[in-house]
Amino acid sequence: MSNFSNYSRRRFLLTAGASAAASLLLKGCLGNPPDPSAKTIAQTTPAANLSPEQKPETTKVNLGYIPIVEAAPLIIAQEKGFFAKYGMTDVNLAKQASWGSMRDNTEIGSAGGGVDGGQYQMPMPHLITEGVITKGNQKIPMYLLAQLITHGNGIALANKHKGQGLGTKIDTGKSVFEKLNSAKTPFTAAQTFPAVNQDFWIRYWLAASGINPDTDIKLLTVPAAQTVANMKTGTMDAFSTGDPWPYRIVTDKIGFLATLTAQMWKNHPEEYLALRADWVDKNPKATKALLKGVMEAQQWLDNFDNRKEAAEILAGRNYFNLPAEVLMEPFMGKYDMGDGRVIDDKKMAAYYWKDEKGSVSYPYKSHDLWFLTESVRWGFLPKDYLSKAKEVIDKVNREDIWKEAAKEAGIAESDIPTSTSRGVEEFFDGVKFDPEKPEEYLKSLKIKKVEI
Polar residues composition bias: which ranges (predicted)? Predict the structure, then answer.
């Protein structure tokens, strides 16, 4: 086992501990069992008249999800009958207590009482495939199949930091961190799982203003659903997580939003649909049926006339279990930031199918490369990993299956990308990522662990 693997496993065991505690609260890491007497739309909606070439090999699959807006396409595909329409009438959506639980349940698979796949932060599918975050570094091949969403995340801060210059750009706010360190009570922030999306967002936000997330603050892992409770105790200064939890912190008047990830990186990649490769290889038609259901749900979600209904579905007891109003305003691009700033701009809302740059659903390989490059930046992956990143991405990212499903579903040619790269990306601080030159991106960053 490499030094990195030892280091990595130690870090990720912290998450496993949080998972265990949260699992007790949720009656097991797969969530509460469904009411056997309740019939869902999926059970009552007849499948479309499917040709033998498109009829799925199985109607059953277990998909895990975390109760944040990234899960909406899976939930809507189930509740609106889109999975059933394509023959997937026995989709089990299993609420996960934490991202650690999601990883653990992916490892054991549905045969062991876990999941076949579902919703993942990036680059979890790659890390599981490579055995970086699994028990005993076991390699469990995964296929990344679609991006679920763009935007929908934020960095929330405790009320005590209002008016101190902590916005998207940390201007005069740098003194906050210096004073807390001098008092030996360092700024304490949390993300929901180390070395993935929500960890990267808060790291980028801090580092862009000259604050080193590894030395200038304390950065912990806390499950998404516990973020509000932890902020209420006064022990946390900041959280990086997905809606509805950042906005819930505002509506509960215990904090404010420093920034939305939509402000940090417009139309950024967020979370993804991925499945164990063994399930996909055994069930290629069922995989495409799932993708078609997700695509239809994503298009339905991007009709803003449907967002009130979407908020009500997601807010239900079986899913997020909170007031629909907490979801509704962010869904429409309306954010009371909690410190006097108000955003009312649909371009800041979550999008699921298309955004200003084109496809949201299609999994661009250039985005996989950014996540892996960022992993190298912070020492989560070794420096030489970039030399094999393309090989790993080609193995994990199955954009070819996405395209096949899109064509079978009758998606317009114009909505099917012709390149696996979305091109050069630009962040709020002016830094650019050219997927043809990831090393140049690393060189341009002032704060990083890797020497390049």
Answer: 40-52
Burial of 443 from C-beta contacts in 10 A (0-12 / 13-18 / 19+): exposed
Q: How far apart are CA 264 and CA 405, in angstroms?
A: 32
Neighbouring residues of 44: CB distance < 8 A, sequence distance ≥ 6? 81
**Both tokens of residue 236?**
């946390």
What is the chain's Cα-based Rg? 21
How far the first Cα of the chain sits from its last, in Å, is 24
| Interval 253-276 mean pLDDT | 98
Inter-residue contact 257 to 236 (CB < 8 Å): no
Residues 429 and 435: beta-carbon distance below 8 Å: no
pLDDT confidence band for 10 (50 / 70 / 90) = very low
Better-predicted residue by pLDDT, 288 or 226: 288
Residue 31 has pLDDT above 50, yes or no: no
Question: Reduced to 3 states, what is the DSSP secondary structure of residue 52?
Answer: coil
Instruction: Name, in order, each residue with C-beta under 8 angstroms of 394's C-beta and a sequence gap of 6 or more.
Output: 365
Of residues 445, 419, 421, the one with CA closest to residue 369: 421
Structure tokens at 76: 């809507």
Residue 175 burial by Cβ neighbours in a 10 Å radius (0-12, 13-18, 19+): exposed
Average pLDDT over residues 222-244: 89
243 near 152, Cβ under 8 Å? yes
* Strand ranges of the sheet holding 142-147, from the earlier edge strand across to the other edge: 90-95, 60-65, 117-120, 272-276, 142-147
Taking the CA atoms of 318, 70, 244 and 328 in sequence, report the sign of the dihedral they define.
negative
The per-residue pLDDT for range 397-407, each reduced to its tens digit, is 999 999 999 99
> Element (H or E) spanning 426, and its range?
strand 425-426
Residues 6 or more apart whose Cβ sits within 8 Å of residue 360: 147, 149, 150, 267, 298, 351, 352, 353, 354
DSSP codes joined into one string, 116-181? SEEEE-TTHHHHHHTTSSSGGG----EEEEEE--B--EEEEEEGGGTTSSBSSSBSTTHHHHHHHH
Asked if pLDDT for residue 414 goes beyond 90, the answer is yes
The pLDDT, as a whole number, for residue 408 is 97
Neighbours of 47 (CB within 10 A): 17
With a cut of 60, say whether residue 8 has pLDDT above it.
Answer: no
